[in-house]
Design a protein that fits this description.
Blueprint: H1 7-13, H2 30-36, E1 44-48, H3 55-69, E2 74-78, H4 83-95, H5 99-103, H6 110-124, E3 128-131, E4 135-136, E5 139-140, H7 144-158, E6 162-166, H8 178-195, E7 198-203, H9 231-234, E8 237-242, E9 261-268, E10 276-283, E11 288-290
Parallel strand pairs: 1-7, 1-8, 2-3, 2-6, 6-7
Antiparallel strand pairs: 4-5, 8-9, 9-10, 10-11
Helix pairs in contact: 3-4, 7-8
Length: 291
């Protein structure tokens, strides 16, 4: 039988005063951490944006911070790229080298070789675990059931605290309908709560954004996630990414350079804070984001 507890018992178990033992994961972006206090176990976080807006750069920068800098056991399930492409992007981020240089297998300078070797050592000694499932006929073969089992296994055996599911809509399903995506979103949320881990997923936005007037109309909105899994409802935190340069807007009306600007929108939290836009710097060559 499930019983209700008196509120005083719950307050004793969940003190509101911060005594330095709060289990949160700082993202490394001060502007974001100051607003939400970092990511927390049990949360489903969605990074959403149209193609080439910076989703990959943001998640790689977060994974770099968690796994390599903070040494937090982290797992990445990359459902939207093949293994070679993923490794090129990951190494570009960690080594701060242009991804296209690695992709072309170009001859590296001594300095570049040193950077690559250092990055390899960093990754080899980090608590980072990766799964890049196979593709067939252009479709990812990993089902939600298989993904859930793999997440449970890496959490149990490796003590993983943060899980990235890259390419939410690429989870293999027998029916590519909104209802299927919604079930997958609920399943990820359930996993986060059941295993007390933070799950970060990336998602595309509805294509009808492209029909909105002007560059200002292309900024991500919470409702743009509707019908692509209803992640607007199910996620605890929704972050939208937008690059003006992605629409060939490289300068604002005051003449400021926007070439490397990434607008990070805090579209939703469970803390009463939303619709806040933060300016970050993005390097699309190295797939990295900084303040």
């Amino acid at each position: 039988m499930i019983r209700c507890q008196h509120i005083s018992e719950i307050l004793n178990d969940c003190p509101l005063e911060n005594k330095g033992n709060c289990h949160t994961f700082n993202t490394g972006f001060t502007c974001l951490d100051n607003l939400i206090g970092g990511f927390q176990p049990g949360e489903l976080v969605t990074i959403a944006g149209r193609p080439c807006m910076g989703k990959t750069a943001l998640y790689l920068s977060l994974a770099h911070k968690f796994a390599l800098t903070d040494k937090i056991p982290t797992a990445i399930f990359c459902l939207e790229s093949n293994q070679r492409t993923f490794i090129h992007q990951l190494m570009a981020n960690v080594a701060a080298l242009p991804c296209h240089t690695l992709r072309k297998n170009a001859v590296l300078s001594p300095e570049e070789k040193e950077k690559l070797e250092k990055a390899t050592r960093q990754l080899a000694t980090s608590p980072l675990y990766v799964n890049v499932p196979p593709y067939a006929g252009g479709f990812c073969l990993l089902t939600m059931s298989e993904l859930a089992d793999s997440i449970k296994e890496v959490v149990q055996k490796q003590g993983v605290k943060i899980v990235f599911v890259i390419g939410f809509q690429h989870i293999n399903t027998d029916c590519y309908m909104p209802q299927s995506y919604r079930r997958h979103a609920f399943a990820l949320k359930k996993l986060a709560l059941e295993w007390n881990v933070t799950i970060v997923t990336t998602s595309f936005l509805n294509w009808w954004i492209e029909n909105r007037d002007g560059v200002e109309g292309k900024y991500p909105q919470l409702g743009d996630l509707r019908y692509v899994g209803d992640l607007d409802e199910i996620s605890d935190i929704v972050l939208g990414v937008f690059r003006p340069a992605g629409y060939n807007v490289n300068m604002d009306i005051e003449g400021n350079d926007l070439t490397n600007t990434l607008h990070l929108s805090l579209l939703k939290t469970k803390a009463g804070i939303d619709n806040i836009v933060m300016d970050l710097k993005i390097d699309m060559d190295t797939f990295s984001v900084q303040e």
